[in-house]
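We treat protein structure as text, and this decision shapes the records that our systems exchange. The tokens are whole numbers drawn from a learned vocabulary of local backbone shapes. Below, we set out a record of this kind in full and without editing:
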Amino acid sequence: MAPSALRSVVEGLIFSSDFPLKAEIIREILGKPAKGEIERVLDELSQEYRDPNHGFELVQVAEGYQFRTKPEHSEWIRKLRKSRASRLTRSSMEVLAIIAYKQPIIRTEIEEIRGVDSASVLRTLLERRLIRILGRRDVPGRPIVYGTTREFLEVFGLRSLSDLPTLREIEELHKEEPSPVNPPE
């Protein structure tokens, strides 16, 4: 396949995919061209779409590649959609963070950390496909074990779980934030 045709086909595959497309899947679809060829094309496309004249970019997320609109255009995209995506509640974010950092984890361990019942939050996160059931732990009662999904990586723009900030990075962010000013009484 000619380099220009390869580039065009790779671009079309990524554009039409509903999920981040792995380089290995692209290679399989195209009859296994050299791995370096696919990587070169992906790098070229990524570089091209970084140009400020494009409204979207090619990003590496959830171990694959996906076209996404640029963050600086979010205001107009929200107007187009006219309704903001439903946000996660504080309790949902807490449970999701616990699962992301501690997985595989069972409900009782989550509740020990939070100090409150988490059944309804877990149900919501399962429905939104941000977490999944990994199986059951081989202990009395055989509790369900939870972990994050590919959709979790997509939603938060992560290539893999190793992209999550470390505890030290989180602590440094909190140190840099200005402390809230107490209004006079």
The chain has a mean pLDDT of 88. The first strand starts at residue 56 and ends at 61.
